[in-house]
Amino acid sequence: MTELGVLDLVPIRAGGTAREALDDTVDLARRAEEFGYRRYWLAEHHFAALASSAPAVVAAHVLAATSTIRVGAGAVQLSQRVASRVAEEWGTLAVLHPGRVDVGLGRSAGRAGQYRDALRRQGTPDTPAKVDHPVVDGVVLPEPRDLRGLVDSPRTATALAVVSPPGDAPDYETQVRSVLHLIAGTFTPEGLDEPLHLTPGAGTDLLPWILGNSPGVSARLAGRLGLPFAANYHLAPGKTVETARAYREAFTPGVLDEPYLAVSADVLAAPTTGDAERQARSFLPWVDAVARGRGAVPVPDPASVSDADSVKLTARHSARVVTRFVGDPDHVVGRLRALAALTGADELVLTTLTHRHDDRVQSHRLIADAWR
Predict the structure, then answer these.
(1) DSSP 215
(2) Which of 14, 27, 223, 335 has the CA that lies 20 to 30 A from 138?
(3) CA 362 to CA 279: how far, in whole Å?
(4) Do residues 6 and 37 touch, judged by C-beta distance below 8 A?
(5) Where would I find the Luciferase-like domain in this sequence (predicted)?
(6) Using 50, 70 and 90 to split pLDDT, how confident is the model at 104?
(7) Are 353 and 299 in contact (CB under 8 A)?
(8) Does residue 99 come out as left (phi exceeding 0), alpha (psi in the -120 to 50 range) or beta?
């Protein structure tokens, strides 16, 4: 059976605090372990109402509070740090918690340039997005988003510049290979006759992953190096099938003997469809702020979202809304099974955004029960 995992953005709710969000993350991780989820990943986001800017620190907190579930990053952005620091941080966690630590290696290079390009063009933020999206075997596969009508602030480009080192982004493949060599104890930079020894971390069972949104650099590199790969359906749904195919076609045995594919999905289950749809209103202003480059805002109370705003934002972000699996447990699980069948996923990694923490816990419990 396809495994289930959790991707936690560590969202801060409207009226809440970062400390409360971190406490909620620990509670959700414990519950996910109890519900039978295989892994618990933490996203990396900066300058937003998400308490996940330091995933290694949050992972240490979660690992100490749990006992069996795998914990990792989904994903550390290599364009913002040197490979040795990533290997040291996550290698230390692997020494402390053997058999339980993943590190997702993200690329993200060029994203700031995309936003800057969009800012130089005239936007049309209130033009309704396309609402008729292709469907293949029960899975919606929208066309890629056009940033021009959504970005109305230089905030995102500036924030990315603040957290990224000056100059050109380092070569992604070189960084990934460096992390692998550091973990294996074989990292020998030019000019040295013997390896630099990673302390602690060398020789551990730290498992690197690669995450990607397209059938390009990341998917092909994961395949060539024999690494596990996660395709982001919840961020780039229209490319997911091609991305999965590119990974498998490029795969040669390396860290793994066979390909292992995880696919992410944005989900929200409640006892009834009506309950789920009411809770899902929180997502609309939240995703609108993200898409406009303002960054994630505190997750609003769904009761604060008017009917008029719900209609307007649903149209504007139709691709994100229609690829979010919202409903009773049977409906959500049915859509997840269709996604797993279409992509051949070995694992589905689920992210859920709600105003109330208890609703997020309930969603993961209901899905786990229905999945079994």
Answers:
(1) T
(2) 223
(3) 12
(4) yes
(5) 3-111, 194-344
(6) very high
(7) yes
(8) left
> What pLDDT, on the 0 to 100 scale, is given for residue 163?
82
Q: Say which CATH number the domain at 28 has.
A: 3.20.20.30
Rounded CA-CA distance 299/77 in Å is 24
Alpha-carbon distance values, 358 to 13, 58, 338 (Å): 12, 20, 27
For residue 153, pLDDT beyond 70: no
DSSP alpha helix (H) spans, 164-271: 172-184, 217-225, 240-250
Q: How far apart are CA 287 and CA 361, in angstroms?
A: 21
Produce one character per residue of 147-157: b if its CB has 16 or more CB atoms within 10 Å, e if not. bebbbeeebbb
Residue 36 has pLDDT above 80, yes or no: yes
Range of the domain at 160: 3-371
Q: How far apart are CA 299 and CA 354, in angstroms?
A: 7
Tokens coding 123: 């936007």
Tokens 């609108």 locate to: 288
Say how many domains are in the chain: 1
- 97-122 as b/e, with b when 16 or more CB fall inside 10 Å? beebbbbbbbbbbebbeebbebbeee
Question: Does residue 182 surpass a pLDDT of 90?
Answer: yes
Amino acid code (one letter) for 183: I
Which residues share a beta bridge with 263? 231, 348
Question: What Cα–Cα distance (Å) separates residue 221 from each residue in 54, 151, 318?
Answer: 25, 30, 32
Q: Pseudo-torsion of CA 5, 106, 61, 90, nearest 10°? A: 110
For all residues of the chain together, what is the average pLDDT?
Answer: 91
| 314, containing H or E segment | helix 307-316
For 186, counting Cβ atoms within 10 Å of its Cβ (0-12 exposed, 13-18 middle, 19+ buried), the class is exposed
